[in-house]
Specification:
- The complex is a heterodimer.
- Helix content of chain A is 28%, strand content 23%.
- Chain A is built from 12 helices and 19 strands.
- Chain A has helices at residues 75-84, 103-115, 139-145, 160-172, 184-187, 196-201, 208-225, 237-248, 285-297, 332-341, 347-354, 356-362, and strands spanning 2-12, 17-26, 29-34, 44-47, 52-55, 57-59, 87-92, 120-123, 125-126, 150-151, 177-180, 192-193, 205-206, 229-232, 253-258, 302-304, 377-387, 406-416, 419-423.
- In chain A, the strands form 4 sheets. In chain A, strands 1, 2, 3, 4, 5, 17, 18 and 19 form an 8-stranded mixed β-sheet that branches.
- The model of chain A has no long low-confidence stretch (mean pLDDT 96).
- By secondary structure, chain B is an alpha/beta fold.
- Chain B has helices at residues 20-24, 42-59, 84-95, 109-112, 116-124, 140-147, 165-179, 197-208, 238-242, 256-259, 266-273, 277-280, 303-306, 313-336; strands at residues 73-78, 99-104, 130-135, 153-159, 186-190, 213-217, 233-235, 247-250, 288-290.
- A 5-stranded parallel β-sheet of chain B has the order 7-6-5-8-9.
- In chain B, strand 3, helix 6 (140-147) and strand 4 (153-159) form a beta-alpha-beta unit.
- The longest helix of chain B is centred in the C-terminal third of the chain and has 24 residues, at 313-336.
- Mean pLDDT of chain B is 90; it is low at 1-18.
- The chains are: A alpha/beta, B alpha/beta.
- The A-B interface holds A 16, 18, 194-196, 198-205, 207, 267-268, 270-273, 276, 313, 316-321, 337-338, 340-341, 343, 346-348, 382, 385, 404-409 and B 1, 3, 5-8, 10-14, 16-20, 23, 38, 115-117, 135, 137-140, 142-143, 147, 159-163, 197, 200, 224-227, 229-230.
């Protein structure tokens, strides 16, 4: 089907394109951006006056909880939440139950995703067998089945030797390895940032060195092996500085940060708010500001949701015994645009961190609006004030610290492959 | 490109989460629960200590019972073993004429996988009036106070490393009885600050009562991060830390600190941080020696000191009853008001 979307402010971070005009969609692809090619006869015309049209977001880390934890959420529920949040591609870490360590799990997830709303679902395959950190997983088979990279999620590896061998093996196929920088022994039983607030609350802390020590080891092995590594979910200023230095030296590394790390700090854990329980933990203000600066500079080239929906019982208990994680698909885009509002970075730079940035990390073709690109995009109403409310929340997990926050702007429509997968109910568009 | 187009004056960051006092105080500032010392004001602490004083006088008489809480049911909900604390809470409740139920969870439901909230709801359904809670997790008392039915009070009898407010209050009571004014005092807390809920509550109480100087003395491996931000002076050398102090509070050293590499040995700890008669001479001549108990003799304190003329360790136990009676009667009063 051919569609003409007219009078939108078209924003494409791939080349800084910013023009009020038309987008022509032919089938599942973008035919033209800005002007209408001669002879284009759209079957449907949409007047998008006053709206912004931007590439759909690519989220590098979203737990959809399927298979194995359907009591928390399903691929159907979470892909709809993603669409509502303007996200058109999500990447699933391999720590499902069972873990994604054979083609069977990849195929199962792909099949469920096809039955869902249409948001693209990609997986990372396991780095080690059953994510146990000992034996390598069959990476080649996983990639053949469609895995976009390999990762041990946040599970520890038995030794640096296993990590070295895993990177070497992944490098054989040019695979990107996605690693969490968390030293398990320094993390211990910690459940929040180690500092003045953990001391006051009497909670076991996770020191900054849990990240920097692990990151130091990872960077040393990247240098040794030449393998491409993406460091997932940085939480410290020092970690961001180490990544910046490694990139400046030409090492093949990249990094992302969860959106909540750019807005919340250890203070948001008080008084034992389980919605502030995340791993890696919310850290100090200095860390938050350092991460923000690294995102603005591009040293951290992707912002992800690190979406982890939970059923209510998981968050009912004394802080340390609650499960870590934030349900975050529906706040990724509003938080990212809030960075622009806060004067941290320009609009295109911010959009790049959730589109072209993550696309480049895992080699996706989408995340742009250039002719020939996939027609995955978002129509955003910049004038609508939107309060985050339980009433219209779509994720099965309501574990968000952002309820009652008010954001400027709201997703009006989300399109994947040339068709709408989410449309804001009309009573909400006033 | 025009970034100002998305700036929006109506978008505001929300206020940070509730302060502890929004949970433990009523709107007119009375104690509804006793969860933590942090955030309470000096007048309220003095009111508790004054109330305890009146009970202390009564406790020294032949008839030790008042009918203040007659008909009330108090549940000692202990998820962690304790003899001394549970017993003094029980005695305090009985001297106020309340009915007392002791529930030791470490051997029952928790093992069967029943959630803390389910346990709470079940006991709550028996129409009780107060929970005295000890739990191994920091924040457990806050959690229970947040979910308990209105009208039920929660007293924190120790949660993880976080707080042990009635212990700190009985320590303040003991200090006040001997020393009176806090503003001229130097107090040293010695030992495993990192894992100590007692130390955290004492530090808050001492600072609220405007103690002249609060010191903590410990090796770096037993000090929590940024401990100075609690309002203490940090000493790593015991001799220096004891110089001229008016009160020494020794903390119990748990054996597992050796297993987790916090310390090399009890022997070396005693050499460096044990309170001996010789070291006691560095303190002020009328210095008090305190310990929340039970003391490890020869590990953190010499027997001669624990039993010596400066020691008020057994008085602390006695006063624990009066202080707990005071807190129990005050929280029930707040509910009835």
């Amino acid at each position: 089907m051919s569609v003409l979307i007219e009078n939108a402010r078209i924003l494409d971070p791939v080349d800084g394109f910013d023009t009020i005009g038309s987008l022509c969609v032919q089938g599942s692809e973008i035919l033209a951006r800005g002007q209408i090619p001669e002879g284009f006869e759209p079957r449907r015309r949409i007047d998008a006056r006053g709206l912004w049209l931007m590439p759909g977001l690519i989220d590098l880390a979203a737990r959809l909880r399927e298979p194995g934890q359907e009591h928390k959420a399903t691929i159907a529920s979470e892909t709809l939440a993603a669409a509502r949040g303007g996200i058109t591609s999500v990447v699933v870490p391999p720590d499902t139950e069972p873990p994604i360590d054979s083609p069977a799990e990849v195929e199962l997830i792909n099949r469920r995703a096809r039955q869902a709303c249409g948001v693209r679902v990609y997986v990372l395959g396991a780095l080690t067998h059953q994510l146990e950190g000992q034996q390598l997983a069959e990476m080649a088979a996983l990639v053949q089945a469609g895995a976009r990279g390999v990762s041990n999620a946040s599970r520890p590896l038995a030794s640096l030797l296993v990590l070295r061998r895993a990177l070497e093996y992944a490098n054989t196929f040019g695979l990107t390895t996605v690693l969490a920088a968390q030293d398990p022994s320094l993390t211990g039983s910690g459940c929040m940032h180690e500092g003045a607030v953990s001391t006051r609350l009497g909670l076991a802390g996770i020191p900054e060195a849990a990240e920097t020590a692990a990151l130091g080891a990872i960077l040393a092995l990247v240098e040794q092996t030449g393998a491409r590594v993406h460091v997932a979910r940085l939480s410290t200023r020092r970690g961001a500085e180490m990544i910046a230095k490694a990139r400046a030296e030409g090492l093949p590394v990249s990094a992302d940060v969860a959106a909540h790390q750019l807005f919340l700090t250890e203070v948001d854990v008080a008084e034992y708010d389980p919605n502030g329980h995340v791993i890696p933990p919310l850290r100090g203000q200095r860390d938050r500001d350092g991460l923000r600066a690294a995102v603005a500079r591009g040293d951290i080239s992707a912002i992800c949701s690190d979406h982890q929906p939970h059923e209510p019982d998981s968050k009912l208990g004394p802080f340390a015994s609650t499960e870590p994680g934030i349900s975050a698909l529906e706040t990724l885009l509003p938080l990212t645009l809030r960075l622009v509002e806060d004067g941290l970075m320009g609009l295109h730079e911010a959009l790049a961190r959730v589109t072209t940035g993550p696309a480049d990390i895992l080699g996706f073709a989408q995340g742009r609006l250039t002719p020939g690109a996939r027609a995955d995009f978002v129509l955003w109403d910049p004038e609508a004030m939107h309060e985050v409310r339980h009433a219209d929340w779509l994720s099965a997990g309501h574990n968000s610290p952002f309820f009652d926050w008010t954001f400027a702007g709201q997703v009006r429509e989300t399109w994947v492959a040339g068709r709408p997968v989410w449309t804001l109910p009309t009573e909400d568009t006033a | 490109m025009n970034d100002s187009q998305i700036a929006h004056p109506g978008a505001r960051l929300p206020q940070p989460g509730p302060l502890p006092n929004r949970l433990q105080l009523t709107d007119d500032g009375q104690l509804r629960h006793m969860l933590t010392i942090e955030g309470l004001n000096r007048d309220l602490l003095n009111e508790i200590l004054d109330t305890a004083e009146s009970f202390a006088n009564m406790n020294e008489k032949a008839v030790k019972k008042v009918p203040l809480l007659r008909g009330k049911t108090i549940v000692n909900l202990f998820f962690e073993a304790s003899t001394r604390t549970r017993t003094t809470f029980e005695l305090a409740a009985k001297r106020l004429s309340a009915d007392v139920l002791n529930v030791n969870i470490s051997t029952s439901s928790a093992v069967k996988g029943e959630s803390l909230l389910d346990t709470l709801r079940n006991i709550e359904a028996m129409n009780v009036d107060m929970f005295v809670v000890r739990h191994e997790e920091s924040g457990a008392a806050h959690f229970i106070a947040r979910h308990v039915a209105p009208g039920i009070s929660v007293l924190n009898a120790g949660d993880g490393r976080h707080a042990h407010p009635t212990q700190a209050l009985l320590d303040m009571f003991t200090i006040r009885r001997h020393k009176g004014d806090f503003t001229k005092l130097k107090v040293a807390i010695v030992g495993d600050i990192l894992h100590s809920r007692v130390a955290r509550s004492q530090i808050h109480a001492l600072n609220i009562l405007q103690t002249g100087e609060v010191r903590v003395v410990a090796p770096c491996s037993l000090l929590p991060a940024d401990v100075d931000q609690l309002g203490v002076h940090v000493y790593n050398d015991l001799d220096a830390g004891l110089k001229d102090v008016d009160v020494i509070i020794m903390l119990r050293l748990q054996r597992e600190r050796m297993e987790h590499a916090h310390l090399p040995s009890e022997h070396e700890y005693y050499q460096l941080f044990g309170l001996t008669s010789r070291r006691l001479q560095l303190a002020h001549p009328t210095c008090l020696v305190m310990h929340p108990g039970p003391a490890n003799r020869g590990v953190e304190i010499e027997s001669a000191v624990a039993d010596g003329p400066h020691s008020v360790i057994l008085e602390q136990v006695t006063y624990g009853i009066s202080v707990r009676m005071a807190v129990m009667s005050m929280v029930m009063g707040a509910h009835q008001a």
